[in-house]
Amino acid sequence: MRALILSLALALTPLAPALAVQPDEVLPDPALEARARELSKVLRCPVCQAENIDESNAELSRDLRLLVRERLVEGDSDQEVLDFVVARYGEYVLFKPDASGTNLILWLAGPAMLLLGLGAAAVYLRGRKSAPEPTVAGLSEDERKRLAEILKE
Amino acid sequence: MIVELGHFALVLALAVAVLQTVVPLVGAHKRWATWMAVGEPAAVVQFLLVSFSFAALTYAFVTSDFSLSLVVMNSHTDKPMIYKISGVWGNHEGSLLLWVLILALFGACASWFGGNLPPTLRARVLAVQGSIGVAFLAFLLLTSNPFLRLAEPPLNGRDLNPLLQDPGLALHPPFLYLGYVGLSMAFSFAVAALIEGRVDAAWGRWVRPWTLAAWVFLTIGIALGSWWAYYELGWGGFWFWDPVENASFMPWLIAAALLHSAIVVEKREALKSWTILLAIVAFGFSLIGTFIVRSGVITSVHAFANDPERGIFILLILAFFMGGALTLYAARAKAMEAKGVFGIVSRESALVVNNILLAVACFVVFIGTIWPLVAELLWDRKLSVGAPFFNAAFSPFMVALAMLMPFGALIPWKRAQIGRGMAPLWPVLALSVAFGALIFAMQTGRSAVGPVAAALGLWVVLGAGVDLWSRTGRGTIGNRLSRLTRLPRADWGKATAHSGMGITLFAAAAMHAWQAEDIRVAQIGETFAFHGYEVTLNAVEEVEGPNYISTMATMTLAANGREIAVLQPEKRVYPVQAMPTTEAAIDYGFTRDVYLVIGDEQENGGWAVRSYFKPFANWLWIGSGLMALGGLFSLSDRRYRIAAGATRTRAMAQPAE
């Protein structure tokens, strides 16, 4: 299977650096192609630095794009395609990590922090609301000295 | 010779920085006026020395002095002059020298414009600023010396990475660094205030212009980088949530929060310890950003200097400054008790919510950026966090911010009522929702992202207008119009920056929701239809540039048979670095860009051609530009003028308004 894709890819890949999605990769069915593009955007190119396979020029990305399209043509759902790719290349290729296991921390960190922040703010604001109004005469000795200095100048 | 002098000046600058750190700090502690006064000349001298050193390196680049290893690695005699100059900071060593130069510049500015600061605070600010200088000068000299000579100079250099040979990217790093490093001033002020043990309204007023300036520079720097990515990388993406982009975005978010909380300190003497914490953390994120970029610990497109030794050094700097500042904070923060009293619904509370949203949004970006590292270290899981995560986890915070912004900006200080605050906003809200609904009805069968963003953007922009108008008080329209022109610049700055935020938000969502794309093989002479336009591939030819060879296509863009533009997308190869780049050709328009890219020649004839329809692309840069402009307006408000020291007596005669 993989050998087939590889030979297919080698036959199709031009020698010059390719530029992301090539015209010959595009599926005839626009709905299927649109799904392929969306899936390509959440898959990371395994040999590039921080590019998805849709934007990447690497040969491996092209292989992956062809693989995604092949699975879609065979009738896989989006999730099945992703599972298929992850099973071969590991979860490293997913740009949107699964919200499972330890990754829950990643996904819940924002909302948890927001609740914490709002809670702390509520306590603070209640404190501010009931705090005694400071009197104008409430200047410290230092402040009074500085005020005098400023006024002298 | 000049190169050696440059190196020597750098060593001297380190010595001066040590002096600038120790003497004023001791002086301020012992109240010795003469010792305290050392800070100012030292800061200026340090700046002059680093400037000389930077000029020496620039000279070596301009004259293509290939006895310098850095010049060999990053320059070439055929390179256009502007890129010989920008090549100075297009590499690790040079960009750090720029970092240090800007750091010294801010220190010198503090000494030039800090005339109205109390002497002890001024001395301490300069000392802290000096200590950052010590750390980075040592880092530069010990691990990244830009002045290393080669025993056998080659005949020519290896050229600059062709992606970096671009006017947008020539300017991107200096602006970004002005922003990053500008936050060091907020940090110095915060640490100095902690040492002093007092934070008052005046402190809020002093720290705000520096933060504002840093934030404006960061905004411009980020926008330039995003614009560069848009036209240079060849598919019109403008934001990738790349770790290095995040590194610049995190300080921006915190600086935005700091700007707003400093207002509360200044006007109401509340949120003091929180503001101090933000000032420390903002610079912390600048250091983390430097660490991410310079160490390559989280590999990304930008990491042109992967070196663990440098990474550890920066980590030590980070640990020292953050550890030190936060320890000091823990010891002293209790002393900063708030004075202002305000209700649950008030401008103060609105700004607290603004701060929570910005800080948590920054936290989300932070955890997303470091998560791959954490997962690998702790659980040996190799995973990636990219755009789809950030779009889902970060965007809600910006949406919430935009929803609350017009209301929060309008309600009065101390005590407000929801009903009263909303009164002038109801028509605006109704109009925005109706506008969104209209757009939703017009675009059948697409996601609601576009219409929602349009409604939100309009709400924010009109809300900013209502805010400005309400500042003119009561009276006839004519009276209010004339009052409008006399409003303080800070009011105009606020309205401008807020509407810029609304426009940027809308443009980013519009790009996501409404862009169209076409990939095909076109024969020479072929015309194809694309999103209401006709595109013709007229010719493809080889063209030779100064230091590259280009495959240039000539294409015609037409609508309804009328020609709109002739576009020439290119594909370049830079032989020295053997690296190809794409140069998209863009027809810029007010409501859309048409973006054409030429691909490879196909085996069976014809060329791969990519066409993109980018709705409201320009609005992204217009929006960011407005945010920066708003910052500049506020900065020029006489109440915040950095140069207040120049008009010292006048400024002193009218204290805290």
TrEMBL record, chain A:
An annotated Gene Ontology molecular function: metal ion binding
Domain annotation CcmH/CycL/Ccl2/NrfF N-terminal: ranges: 9-151
Keywords linked to the UniProt accession: Cytochrome c-type biogenesis, Heme, Iron, Membrane, Metal-binding, Signal, Transmembrane, Transmembrane helix
Keyword Membrane listed: yes
GO BP: cytochrome complex assembly
Signal sequence segment: 1-20
Record-annotated membrane-spanning stretches: 104-125
Gene Ontology cellular component annotations, sorted alphabetically: plasma membrane
UniProt-listed Gene3D superfamilies: Cytochrome C biogenesis protein
The keyword Heme belongs to this UniProt entry's keyword annotation: yes
InterPro entries: C-type_cytochrome_biogenesis, CcmH/CycL/Ccl2/NrfF_N, CcmH/CycL/NrfF/Ccl2_sf
Function: Possible subunit of a heme lyase.
Family the UniProt entry places it in: Belongs to the CcmH/CycL/Ccl2/NrfF family.
Record's protein name: Cytochrome c-type biogenesis protein
TrEMBL record, chain B:
GO function term, MF aspect, one: heme binding
Major location category of this protein: membrane
One cellular component term from this protein's GO annotations in UniProt: plasma membrane
Cytochrome c-type biogenesis protein CcmF C-terminal domain mapped to chain residues: 315-638
Annotated coiled-coil segments of the chain: none
Signal peptide: none
Bilayer-crossing regions: 6-26, 38-62, 96-114, 126-148, 175-195, 207-229, 249-265, 277-305, 311-331, 352-374, 394-413, 425-442, 448-470, 616-635
Domain Cytochrome c assembly protein: 89-295
Subcellular location: Cell inner membrane
Any single Pfam family the record assigns to this protein: Cytochrom_C_asm
GO biological process, one term: cytochrome complex assembly
Keyword list, A-Z: Cell inner membrane, Cell membrane, Cytochrome c-type biogenesis, Lyase, Membrane, Transmembrane, Transmembrane helix
Membrane topology: Multi-pass membrane protein
Family affiliation: Belongs to the CcmF/CycK/Ccl1/NrfE/CcsA family.
NCBIfam families reported in the protein's UniProt record: nrfE (TIGR00353), PRK10369.1 (NF007691)
Function: Required for the biogenesis of c-type cytochromes. Possible subunit of a heme lyase.
Record's protein name: Heme lyase CcmF/NrfE family subunit
Species annotation: Aliigemmobacter aestuarii
Lineage: Bacteria, Pseudomonadati, Pseudomonadota, Alphaproteobacteria, Rhodobacterales
